[in-house]
Amino acid sequence: MEGFTIEAIFYFITLCVFLGVEIISNVPSILHTPLMSGANAIHGVILVGAIIVMQRIPSDDYINLSIGFLAVLFGTLNISGGFFVTGRILAMFSKKKKA
Fold first, then answer.
1. Cβ neighbours, 10 Å, residue 82
2. Would 46 be classed as within a structural domain?
3. Within a domain: 1
4. Which residue stretches of the chain have pLDDT < 70?
5. CB-based contacts of 43: which residues, under 8 Å, 6+ apart?
6. How far apart are CA 29 and CA 68, in angstroms?
7. Closest among 93, 91, 88, 79 to 38, alpha carbons compared
8. Which residues fall within 8 angstroms of residue 72, CB to CB, at 6 or more apart?
9. Helix axes 62-93, 29-55, angle to 10 degrees
């Protein structure tokens, strides 16, 4: 990572955390769940990228393979959770059938 010092990276990550917390805390609760469900669905692009990167890791590099496996696992959980929440939201707004 030429051109970036550890301090600059630390300040950037800290700024991103504070900015993210500020943005998320100002989203109305009625919009929060649908927005997060959509964001989780978009996470599929990141999952495909993680799989492609894992294919390029040498087979004897166990640490990076383990980290890549965790990234794919958590990405899959994030996507399925996003679709699950979206399904529940849509079920709330559907008309109930009379028995």
1. 19
2. yes
3. no
4. 1-2, 29, 32-34, 36-38, 41, 97-99
5. 75, 78, 79, 82
6. 33
7. 79
8. 47, 50, 51, 54
9. 150
The pLDDT of residue 94 = 75
Asked whether residue 19 is domain-assigned, the answer is: no
Say how many domains are in the chain: 1
Domain that holds residue 63: 29-93
21 inside domain: no
CA dihedral 15, 18, 24, 26 (to 10 degrees): -110
Tens of pLDDT, residue by residue over 21-42, are 898 788 776 776 667 666 776 7
User: In sequence order, which ranges of the chain are alpha helices (DSSP H)?
Assistant: 6-25, 29-55, 62-93
The predicted pLDDT at position 1 comes to 53
